[in-house]
Amino acid sequence: MYNAFSCLKRHHTQTVVLHYDKPVKINKLKNNNLMKLKYFTVRILFLLLLFVQSSQLFSQKNKDEIPTTLEELQTAIKAVMKETGTPAVGLTLVNKDGVVLTKTLGKADVENDIDADENTMFRIASVSKMYVSLAILKLQEEGMVNLKDKVRDLVPEVEFENPWEETSPILVENLLEHTTGWADFDIVDYAQDGSKLPLKEAINFHPHSRVSRWIPGTRYAYSNSGPGVAAYIIEKITGQTFEDYIQETFFSPMGMKSMTYFVDSEVYKKHGAKLYIDGNRAKMWNILYRPSGAINATPKDMANMVSFFINRGEIDSIQVISEASLKRMETPSTTIGAKAGLEDGYGLSNFSSSYKNVVYRKHNGIAIGGLSDLSYLPEYNLGYAVMTNSADTEAMERISNLIRAFQLKDIVAEDAKVQNLSSNKETDVSGYYININPRNQRFYYLERLFNAQKMEYKGDKLFIKNVLGETDSKTFIQPNKNHFASPETKKITMVRAEDPIAGTVYEVDKQVLKPISGIVVFGQLIIFALWVFGMITAILFGIIWSIRFWMGKIAGGPNIWIRLWPLISSLFFVIVFITFSSGASDFNAVFGNVTLSSITVMVSMIAFALVSLWSMYYLFKVRTAKIKRLTYWYSATLICLHFLVTCYFLWWGVIGVPTWN
């Protein structure tokens, strides 16, 4: 939900919350995301970009033993906390009979040695979005709004751009299923403090990202803007502030006495857990649109929230919202994949998360220095919520998997009762693919480079993995030419569909994949690798050349300038890299505002492009000069690489664009 460029975790780069709070699977986090950036090469470029993303928050690489009792579960969680340095954990487990466990462990404030207790409040971040969808569904039941209503008709004063508005208008359900085509928050949005802003002012602040990049209702792309606009619709319909309406309609009936959107409330000031990144105190970040991720809650509050979903909208024998509305909330409906039979995906602020042979419904949250996960199994009347005051996604992954293993220790055997699906390679889909529904449009040029996917058959199964050799891969069996199912859950988790713009695509794990030539995939990676290698060698050679020139062993004129121009280009880009690296700890504040660092990046990128273009001209100009051929061709190669990279950056609008705009 937040821009996680400012928060790099131990062995994954936690990127973007640019939007971040990118929904994440317990066993496979992407993006994110454009949510986290998991490829080592991206660090070389800007330490940027999520994928979603995703970035794999909940893939269990650490095999913890399955606890069989509540005592063993708590002991196992404490062991994870100690191993990962997680200060505090708040958790609750719920079943059909009620609350099984509500517990806080560890320190709410490390510096002052304050223990977490039953009143300690944690940030639940994007789990907050669930209340936006619940409110819309509640108002729909009362006949005050409809998911099929046009957003333009409801709130014409809200600025957004949809080139297909006449034939494919943005509907309320598109806001909640993230199918508007809008990109997620930009850096400038994440740099703003929304703790006190009225919602309408927040929405008016920076509407530039609310532009449909494809036909609404076709592709999913996580965006914090959609739920914010939906919350404003709620305000306009009810005549109340969004927070007051949620308090009156949900928090109070559900017995949530301390749950709040406001960090300046007395209860949060007194009981709010301090937030940490790699053991260091994190700066409090308040999302611009509070409805999209500002809630703070105790484990007891979360127990009531989980119970609400398990009891199918009933509180104390009162049906607050119908089960039919909850089922709609849990059902992805608007993407081309959903219409083609996809059973996996994001509904109304609610998405699927497979674990062994079952599929949880859930939402997770990622804030600076805090993580949360609310998951439940309607068919088994089980659920849980877990929150930490740490940015360590590995710890959250392991703790969530421990809870799931404990809850399902007697259920996973049901797998044998599920009818098997035969493999059917009626259509060969092996090849290379690129994602065409990026969460962060600003950084899509990086995703195209480093997130190409490869599909290949091994025996009777289809595998998808990142071409850079990511260890985690997705596995499918193929019941027919258009559907691909999970071998464990037997649910349709990938489908072949027809995108009205891109043609034949495959929708899987919230990605829309389009076929791409392997030559393009590896050609781009090879050029990038040669470019980085060339810059490194140019800087090393530059030291030697300087000494030799000073000693009079290298002539002036073309002999020295043919070396200097590509070196100067390299140095400008190194300045960009160093500037981004130095500001990574507070990325949003540094680059979402006019600062020395953000200006330096913009000016250096322009200088890099200008020198690269000039170098091409100079290379042609001195082609007949008396220069050692080896030196000439070395410089010519690097100059050409700089030129290609400059053209790529210009094509994707990277050169000269202020990060604060």
What does this 3D model show about the protein?
It contains 20 helices and 23 strands. With 661 residues, it is an alpha+beta fold. Among the domains are: 431-520, no CATH class; 526-651. The protein has an eight-stranded antiparallel beta sheet with strand order 19-18-17-16-23-22-21-20. A hairpin with a 2-residue loop joins strand 10 and strand 11 (318-319). The model is unreliable at 2-62 and 414-420 (pLDDT under 50).
Short descriptors:
661 residues; alpha+beta; 23 strands; globular
How is this fold's topology laid out?
Blueprint: E1 7-8, E2 13-14, H1 40-45, H2 70-84, E3 88-95, E4 98-109, E5 114-115, E6 122-123, H3 129-141, H4 151-154, H5 172-177, H6 187-190, H7 199-205, H8 225-238, H9 242-251, H10 266-271, E7 276-277, E8 280-281, E9 296-297, H11 299-310, E10 314-315, E11 318-319, H12 323-329, H13 336-339, E12 351-355, E13 358-367, E14 370-377, E15 382-388, H14 393-407, E16 431-435, H15 444-450, E17 453-458, E18 461-466, E19 474-476, E20 483-485, E21 492-499, E22 503-508, E23 511-516, H16 518-550, H17 558-582, H18 587-591, H19 596-621, H20 629-651
Antiparallel strand pairs: 1-2, 3-4, 3-15, 4-5, 6-9, 7-8, 10-11, 12-13, 13-14, 14-15, 16-17, 16-23, 17-18, 18-19, 20-21, 21-22, 22-23
Helix pairs in contact: 2-14, 3-8, 16-17, 16-20, 17-19, 17-20, 19-20
In whole angstroms, the N-to-C terminal distance is 20 Å
Described by strand count, sense and barrel closure, the largest sheet is: 8 strands, antiparallel
Structural class: alpha+beta
How many extended strands?
A: 23
Instruction: Specify Rg, calculated over alpha carbons.
Output: 26 Å
In what order do the strands lie side by side in the largest sheet?
19-18-17-16-23-22-21-20
State the helicity in percent bands. Answer: 25-40%
| Structure annotation, total helices | 20
Which regions contain 5 or more consecutive residues with pLDDT less than 50?
A: 2-62, 414-420
Strand percent estimate: 15-25%
Overall average residue pLDDT: 87
Question: What sort of overall outline do the alpha carbons produce when their principal axes are compared?
Answer: globular
